[in-house]
Amino acid sequence: MLNLSSILGIFxxxxxxxxFLLYASAAYSSQDIDAPSAVAVDAQxxxxxxxxxxxxxxxxxxxxxxxxxxxxxxxxxxxxxxxISKKAAQTPGVSPKLMRGEVYTVRDLVYLAxxxxxxxxxxxxxxxxxxxxxxxxxxxxxxxxxxxxxxTKFINASGLPGKGQCTTVYDLTKIMSHALAxxxxxxxxxxxxxxxxxxxxxxxxIQNTNHLLWSEDNMIGGKxxxxxxxRHCFVSAYKVKDRLVYTAILGDTNREKLWExxxxxxxxxxxxxxGKGEPVVxxxxxxxxxxxxxxxKQKLSKKVKVNKNKVKKTSKKRVKNAKNNKRTI
Length: 329
Prior knowledge:
The protein is an alpha+beta fold and 329 residues long. 42% of the residues lie in helices and 19% in strands. Substrate binds at residue 223.
């Protein structure tokens, strides 16, 4: 039988463990998102659960390809065959390199564009859809305007750097919400590995650039992006119990931080949806974290308007000083 001293000893250890876990949980949830712009949005209500400069305009990198594939699938049959042009083949990007004259199905080009982020595949889809990448970009900009991504503009189908090409993390969540309505997109962004076969027999074994597919069971899928100017980007859809949450990050420092920040966004979203925290939006470094109140939308919109001007100035300065890069993943 335990004596009083033993019981007190066990009790003190339990209290210590409880306090330690409570502290660790608080420390984890209080960590800041490193990226300059990030957001977690409740798909059911469209409300921001956590945001850091959610309307800051930044380069989209290969998150662009979600719109590329959406527009292409509205015009092309997945089993249609597409011949790789000289322009598509010469578009710089990651491996596998598609060669001029090779023939692929639209389905395989979609997997190459969304899973491996192959720029040549994006250009090939654009040319097959509209005759030229330039004509295709017009359709892309019409598409984002239609879905309400008002701060997004494209100048190419791949996401390679270019003057005027931009998006916001909030717009990216809108783009993801519409992309999931396309079964082939939903399938591709949830696929870990895939074998692509050209009509001439050349094969490419590709792996999804979204590493969270291997560690997060509730990850529906996502699209990565990287250029030197854009840095590391990611937009995703995640299941939180019975709710769907979209997350988006632009401008993270490295790929590991991208995954950590995404997991932070998911954790914050889980807390808010469970009633353990309140939605917050951090609009700029000069301003403190601001609780989100959906009961007084008029006052909130005024604050956002004032701070967005500051954010735009910061964004323009960053874009001016950044160097272009010919690689996007």
